[in-house]
Amino acid sequence: MRITEIRTIISWAGLRNWVFVQIRTDTDLYGWGEGTLEGKERTVEQAIHTLSETLIGQDPLAVEHLWQILYRHGFWRGGVVLNSALAALDQALWDLRGKAWGVPVYALLGGPTRKHLRVYTHVGIYQPQLMIEDALRDVEDGYTAMKTGAWAGDSRLPEVDRIAAFAERIGQLREAVGPKIDLMVDDHGRGRPASGVRLMQALEPFDLFFLEEPTQPDDVEGLARVRAANPKMDLATGERLYSKWDFRSLLEQRLVDVIQPDLCHAGGISECKKIAAMAEAYYVNVAPHNPQGPVATAAAAHLSMAIPNFHILEFVRSEPYRDQALTEPWVVEEGNLLVPDLPGLGVDLNVETLQASTPRLSRVPRDAFAADGSVFDV
To answer: Can you say how many angstroms the Cα of residue 151 is from the centroid of all Cα atoms in its chain?
Structure first.
C-alpha cells in the first residue's frame, strides 16, 4: 500500500472552521485527520500540502518513521502551525493503520484501558450570559462535568473587578447545578503570577475540578508561584504546548495536576501518546484539550482509551454540525462518550455536507483591549 493523494476540506461549524485532511492510497483504504486551528485555517491547510509532498509514494503504515521525517527533515520544526499540520497527517495515518489491520486505533496503542470516557461540555464559554442556560441544558441531558470562563469581554475591567466578576459567576453556576456536578474554570492564560494566585483564592469556595491556565502558557516560573500558594483545586495547562519537549520542564517541576495536550496541535496521536507516558511517570493525569471537530474528538478518544492516566475529555457539542459531518454519529450516554469498536478511528465524514458549509470568519474572540486601549489577551 502506498500514499497517492492528500486532500483537505475546511468547513464552517458554527463557532470555528474545521480543517480536515484525507490521505488516499492505491487501495480502497483512506484515512481521516484533523488540524483545526481557529483563525489560521488556511495557513495550516497550506502547511499540510507542503508536508504532504514528502508523503506521496510512502508506506502509510510506517507511522513513526513518517512522523520523524515530517518533523525533522524540514529543518524548521515545531510551533502551532507546523505541528497542527503534522497532527492532522498523523491522525490520518493512524486511521489508515487501524483500517489496514481491521482494529480500532486504541487497540494498536495497547487499549482498551476503560469502557468509556467521561466528557465535559462548555457552558457560557466566551458568553457568560449563556452560562446558566447552557449548564441546565447539559445537566438535563446527563452531563456531569462542565467548563466555563475564557471571557475576553472582561478585559476592560480593573483586575480586582474582573476577579470579583469571575467569582460571582462561578458562585451562580455552582448554585444552579448543585454540588455533584464537576466544574472547571479556564482563564485562558491571561494572568500574571500574582493575579493568578488571587483568582485561584477567589474561586476556592466553589470546589473546582480544576483551574486551567491561571498564568501565561510560556511562564513556567509564574505557574510555580501559583503552585506555591497551596491551591485547593487541581491546576491544569498544556493546550498551547506542542511537543514532548514543551511539556518536559512542566512535569519535572511538578507544577500541575493535569496536562491538556491537544491532538490537533501537539503532533497528533504519536506525540501525545509519548507526552501521556511522560506524565504518567510524574502521576499527572491527561485531559486532552479538544474544542474542535469530530475527527479530533475521535483521535483524542482513542488515545484516552489506551492510556492509564486519562482524566476527562473536553467535548464541544457543536450542534448540529458534528452529527451532520459524521456518517455514523458517536453516542454520549450519561456524560460518557462511547467509542465504537470499529477499524481505525471509527469515523467517516460526509464530504458533500462539509463542502457545502463554506468557511467563514471564526466567532472565537480575536480582539480584547484594556480600558486604556492597550492589547489584552483573548
So the answer is: 18
- Residue 319 Ramachandran class (φ > 0 left, ψ -120 to 50 alpha, else beta): beta
Over the stretch 73-122, which tens digit does the pLDDT of each residue have?
989 999 999 999 999 999 999 999 999 999 999 999 999 999 999 999 99
For cell 497551596, what's the residue? 230
Query: Confidence class of residue 365 from pLDDT cuts 50, 70 and 90?
Result: confident
| 73 is an active site residue | no
**Which residue out of 116, 122, 265, 289 is catalytically annotated?**
289
Which run of H or E residues covers position 325? helix 321-325
Domains of the chain, each with CATH number or no CATH:
3-102 (3.30.390.10), 107-348 (3.20.20.120)
Q: 188 an active-site residue?
A: yes
pLDDT tens string 24-45:
999 999 999 999 999 999 999 9
Question: Among 116, 122, 188, 311, which one carries the catalytic annotation?
Answer: 188
From the CB of residue 207, how many other CB atoms can be counted at a distance below 10 Å? 12
